[in-house]
User: Fold this.
Amino acid sequence: MSLYTMKELLQDAYAKQYAIPAFNFDNFDLLMGVFEGATEAQSPLILQITQPAIEFFGIENVVDIVRNEAAIRKLPTALHLDHADNLEIIESAIKTGFTSVMIDYSEKDFADNARMTQKVVELARPFNVTVEAEIGQVGVTADPLSCSSISTDMMTDPQAAITFKEATDVDVLAVSIGTIHGMKVKEMQLDIERLQEINAKLGIPLVLHGSSGAREADLKKVINYGITKTNVETELRVTFRNTLEKMLAENPNEIKPRNIMKHVREAIKQKVIQRQTLLKSAGRIAMSVKS
Ligand SMILES: [Zn+2]
Assistant:
C-alpha cells in the first residue's frame, strides 16, 4: 500500500466535518507510539516532520519507516513536510516520497508569500503532492505557560485568504485564528467567527497550527467550519519527557532501551487515541481506504 496524499485524506474530512490530527515526530519511539495509537483508534494518519528533524533522522529513513509501518498496519497515511521555507528541501522531500509539503512564507509580505507558494504548487503538481501554505501568522510563544492572546493583525484576513487561494491554487491553507506554537497550557482564545467567515468564502480544507494550546471545547467547534487538520507537537513532547522522567525515577536500574521506551510509546499512544477521538477521525479508516 502506498502512502496517501494529504489532499485525499483531508477531502474526506472536509466533506464529513472531522479533523485529522497531524503529529510531529523526531524520534523513532515517538513515531511508533503514534502508529500504535492510530492503529487502535482506526484513524487515518498524518505524520509530519520539520527540516531539522529530517536532518536528525535521515530523509530516506523517514520515508522508508513511514511507508513500511503504514503498509503493515494498512493505515491510510500521509507524510507531510512541516514549515519549510527552502525550495531545495521541498524538492528533495517531494522526490524522496513525501506526499505533502508546507511552504511557510507567512512572515514575508503577501506578494512574496503568494509567489513562493505558486512556485511550490508548480513543483508539486507533477508528483501529485499536496501543498499547504499559511496566510496570517501563527507565531511562536516566548512563554509556553502564560496564555497571552495574539494580536488581530497577525490573524488571517478572510479577504486576503481568498485572493491568496485564487493567486496560488494552493490545496490546503493554514489559518491564524488565535493559536500560537509551543503552548503548554490549553487556554488560547480562538476567533471562531473569523474562521466561519474564512470557511464560507474559501471552500478548501483548513489547518490549525499550535493546537496543543487550544481548549478541547474549541477544537470540537472548529471541525464544523473547515478545520480538517490540527497540528500537534508540544503535547507529545511534554508527554514524552514526563513519561521518561517518571519511568527512570521509578526504575533506576533498568538499562534496556526497549524496556525504558515502551512506557513512552504507551503514553504517546494514549494521547494519540485521545486526540483522534476528540476530533472524530477515530473509526474513519474504512471510509478512507482506496478502492
Ligand atoms: Zn506550525
Notes: Residues 257-278 form the longest helix (22 residues). Residues 6-288 form a domain with the TIM Barrel fold (CATH 3.20.20.70).
